[in-house]
Amino acid sequence: MKIHHLQPEQALRSLHAGREGLSETEAARRLREYGANRLTEFERKSVTLRFAGQFTHFFAILLWLAATLAFFGDWKAPGEGMDTLGFAILGVIIVNGLFSFWQEYRAERAIAALQKLLPLKVKIVREGSVRLAEAADIVPGDTILLQEGDNVPADCRVLEAFALRVNNATVTGEALPQARDAQPSVTDELIHARNVLLAGAAVVSGEGRAVVFHTGMHTEFGRIAHLTQAAGEAVSPLQKEIVRLSRLVGMLAVSLGIGFFFIGRAAGLSFWQDFIFAIGIIVANVPEGLLPTVTLSLAMATQRMARRNALVRHLPSVETLGSATVICTDKTGTLTRNRMAARRIFLDNEIRCPEDIDERMATDYPGLWECARNCQNLKETVRDGKRDLLGDPMEIALVRMAERFLDDTAVYPKLDEVPFDTERKRLSILSRTPAGNLLYTKGALETVLPLCSDVEIGKRTVPLTEEIRRRFIDAQETLAEHGFRILAFAHRQISDGFDRDRLEENLTLTGLVGLEDPPRPEVPAAIEKCLQAGIKVIMVTGDHPHTARAIAREIGLLASDHPYVITGDDLRRLSNTQLQLALDKEDIIFARLGADQKMRIVEALQRKGHVVAVTGDGVNDAPALKTADIGIAMGIAGTDVAKESADMILLDDNFASIVSAIEEGRAVFGNIRKFMSYILTSNIPELVPYLAFALFSIPLPLTIIQILAVDLGTDMVPALGLGADRPDPECMKNPPRSAREKLLRWPLLTHAYLFLGVLEALAAMAAFFYVLQAAGWQYGRSLARDDPTYLRATTACLSAIIVMQIVNVFLCKHPNRSLFRSPLFNNRLILIGIVLEIGLILFIDYTPWGNRIFGTTPIAPDVWLFTLPFALGMLFMEELRKGVSRMTGTP
Fold first, then answer.
1. What distance in Å separates the CA atoms of residue 155 and residue 211, rounded to the nearest whole number?
2. Kind of pairing, strands 612-616 and 326-329?
3. What is the rounded distance in angstroms from the CA atom of residue 513 to the CA atom of residue 442?
4. pLDDT at position 273, please?
5. pLDDT tens-digit series, residues 689-732
6. Cα separation of 126 and 650, whole Å?
7. Where does the Cation-transporting P-type ATPase N-terminal domain start and stop, copy by copy (predicted)?
8. Tell me: domain 311-337+520-653, CATH 3.40.50.1000, correct?
9. How far is CA 848 from CA 320, 683, 835, 845, 853, in A?
10. Taking the CB of the first residue and of the last residue of the chain, which one, N or C, has fewer CB atoms within 10 A?
11. Helix boundaries (H) for 682-756
12. Which of 612, 661, 617, 656 is nearest to 635 (CA)?
């Protein structure tokens, strides 16, 4: 038999222990055998390897290769600026690697956070005497003593209990304190046994004696720790897409380099000249600014999300949240206020809201208010100069309710108590009052009603007839249908010479109170927004199914009157296939779940192809938070374990903040596409000069260092501005993007390369030849690299690209919406980027340092005027394309 099925003495014998505790010698032997009562940490990838990983992923390797080729090119052809290019690319690799490591790095502190919940010292019985011992020295068979305020150090079987209640919320997710006693339990599940105390639980009230049967990693606490450590890190869709994009861009750049190498050979270039030419082609097509722009864009999105109470711990989680298709959300504190309140009162044969009770009715039912105020085990304290109550949130709510209707808020002295337990389902407290000794009782109506002989109606006490009994039962059923937690209240005058075994007899019934943890007022609108956005919201809670169903109905989560409710026991009986089929239900709620079960739901949803976001606050939520595509921990009520396991932390514990964060996250994917379209467009005007140089034997219109000026200079801040663009107001009216949708698609490539890129290349080459023609250059005539005519022509080519990119940044703000229907000046970073872009090209063109570094020289105003019609032409052509796209519905 399991230990919770045994009598206390049998439990002790099964552990070869006794009431006097273990001997020190036996305890030392068991400590050697079972190990210390602490959680062990698995070996993980070292910090060094994780740091190195930021510099060895595919795109970083591609940049290392580009830098190596640049240095090799400088060695073969000094003075071409290739060394400057190499050092610039190395700077990109190092800065991006350090920044990404700083953002992504997190020391594995989950075990340390778990340990914080375990007490350092505990009262232990050894060789018949009580002493303080280190929690790590506890062994199976040790007898420990616990009282209110203690944390349970290991899994224990209760031997004696006196009004003992514990809060298992951090372990099992149950919001309400649970009574514990020493009697054998009939339940099969150890974690739900009424005679078991779980490691990490907190003693809310009472005291008890218990024998330890599991320590360290063998506890339920340790099992959760194991799940948390063993759960693999989920790779975000954006991370997968960046890997794919890196490979695609790398293959494209290398293929073009090889192709142009053969074109150069066919055009008669020497081998080394052709090789340097191929390197230039590769470098021109590797968007060196992609990684830092993506990283910085995500970082800026995290700042915006933080302003909306969502703190992102891992950068890719920003976009992952935006692509979420399912949110598995806890109830308490996320959908609700985590603040129990009395919402309904049944008295005078009618169910009323507390706000509707007038002064006459308040004075006619003093027994109800006094019972609610006195029948409790709360502690009073002073916090910030104000009176505060500590203890069971339900009892706090009842006292607050009573204080609204009583002038005297003092609690009468307690003489005796008949404690609450799961069998009795009621609590009775005997108090000394000005009117004599009064017994106050509260509990479930089915246990209080049989003890009552009278009922309080107004200021009168009348016999409790069958008709009145039926009214109370009907009222209870009505309240239960709405998910309220219902308590009945009664009282009785007690003489001094009372018989304690007969206290709870001939009670006077006073009324019923329906309590509820009310939903947050902003949650229904957030739920509706999710439904409009095509995001399924599933409530996954440790609370009772009736409570979960009522809250779900109140916040608009249910479309039908009969949702599919699956409890933890139901889930254990379902196979993985049955679970996946059940998840197809439109309205589904999970209640009374264990730690591994929440993770199982996440895994089932992921097998169905969903991108899953999960909320949680307790230790029991940590495995699911880590397994999910994005784990969301509560910042206020969340444990350290949950926060360490999560990707994002809600600073206000509010579900509505998740929806705001989703809106920001959805913008990220679209914004990345915007700046990709922007930076890829400039690849064509960077590539065409090399193609023209090889095929038509003209002077090279654009040098490699000038390409670098565009990719890592003028384009960087405007591209970042596109990446930081605000969410489109329509983004939450569309379904989540498909997990199969790629970041880089053929429509984007053709639009950037074959449309906008070609228009920019025409402008750049036209400006180059405009300067040459004005200087009287003849085709076939070679120009020295320091020839003033050549320097003016190549400067004109570079400047024309910049002018076109200034227009392009506005064209890329929306893929289909007209520029004239979009707000042009709502993105300050784009405006700053344009100012910096203009400032940088003026520095390059008109300062001695810029001329020396980038191989340029000042150009006349007429060159700038020459490029303007090309910029206006690109604007007209793009507006025409967008108009056709809107009419045909094509991307």
1. 9
2. parallel
3. 10
4. 67
5. 888 887 788 898 988 778 878 877 788 788 878 877 878 877 88
6. 45
7. 2-74
8. yes
9. 47, 27, 21, 9, 9
10. N
11. 683-696, 704-709, 716-723, 746-749
12. 617
Q: What is the pLDDT of residues 509-537, one digit of tens each?
A: 999 999 888 888 889 999 998 988 999 99
Q: Is 547 helix (H, G, I), strand (E, B) or coil?
A: helix
Cα separation of 795 and 855, whole Å? 8
80-94 pLDDT per residue, tens: 666 776 787 787 778
Can you give the pLDDT at residue 161?
Answer: 85
* pLDDT tops 80 at residue 298: no
* φ, ψ at 267 (rounded to 5°): -80, -5
Dihedral angle of Cα 14, 144, 226, 110, to the nearest 10 degrees: 180
Q: How far is CA 257 from CA 165, 253, 722, in A?
A: 73, 6, 29
Determine contact, residues 511/342, Cβ cutoff 8 Å: no
Residue 51, pLDDT > 90, answer no
**HEC profile of 328-356:** EECCCCCCECCCCEEEEEEECCEEECHHH
Maximal CA-CA distance, the chain = 124
CATH match of 343-514 with 3.20.20.10: no
pLDDT at 113: 45
- From 361, 395, 367, 402, select the one nearest 380 (Cα to Cα): 395
> What CATH code would you report for 52-101+235-309+662-888?
1.20.1110.10
Does this chain's domain 311-337+520-653 share its CATH topology with 343-514? no
Residue 18, C-beta contacts closer than 8 angstroms, at least 6 positions apart: 12
pLDDT winner (highest mean) among 120-129, 411-420, 764-773: 764-773
- C-beta separation of 345 from 511 below 8 A: yes
Positions marked active-site = 330
Just give the CATH number of 3-41+112-230.
Answer: 2.70.150.10
Kind plus residue range of the DSSP H or E element containing 166:
strand 155-167
The CA distances from residue 826 to 230, 723, 822, 836, 883, in Å, are 46, 14, 9, 17, 23
pLDDT at 537: 94
User: What pLDDT was estimated at residue 114?
Assistant: 39
What 3-state class would DSSP assign to 420?
coil
Each residue's pLDDT tens digit, 837-881: 999 999 999 999 999 888 899 999 999 999 999 999 999 999 999
Task: State how far the Cα of 754 lies from the Cα of 744, in Å rounded to an integer.
Answer: 15
Distance CA 735, CA 473 (A): 46
Tokens of 30: 């068991």
Percent of the residues in the chain that have a pLDDT greater than 90, as a whole number: 29
Give me 219's structure tokens: 């506890």
